């Protein structure tokens, strides 16, 4: 039962942090800074954008899992990190 509770906490944290970071990143991209426009221009020219997005997602998932294991993070901080990277990939690849 504890595993279900921890999984639910992780899922809720990932969803909330993804939504929050997506709003922040999209507003930064629409501002005068246009922070992610050069990256979006590069990724829009890729022929297999979904494949590269998936590769980047898997690579960052492995990296975040290693950080989680090495620094003994809680599920909440793991979910926030995961949501941050998920939103960043979404903005950069224009999904």
Q: Cα distance, first to last residue?
A: 35 Å
The total of beta strands comes to 0
Strand proportion = under 5%
Largest sheet entry: none
Q: What Rg is obtained from the alpha carbons, in whole angstroms?
A: 15 Å
Short key terms for the protein model shown above:
mainly alpha
Q: In terms of topology, how is this protein built?
A:
Layout: H1 2-30, H2 37-44, H3 49-71, H4 75-92
Helix pairs in contact: 1-4, 3-4
Transmembrane segments: 6-29, 50-68, 74-94
Keywords: Membrane, Transmembrane, Transmembrane helix
Describe the structure.
This protein is mostly helical and 95 residues long. It has one domain (2-92). 82% of the residues lie in helices and 0% in strands. The protein contains four helices and no strands. The protein has helices at 2-30, 37-44, 49-71, 75-92. The longest helix has 29 residues, at 2-30. The radius of gyration is 15 Å and the shape is globular. The N and C termini lie far apart (35 Å). The model has no long low-confidence stretch (mean pLDDT 92).
Concise description?
By secondary structure, the protein is mainly α. The protein has helices spanning 2-30, 37-44, 49-71, 75-92.
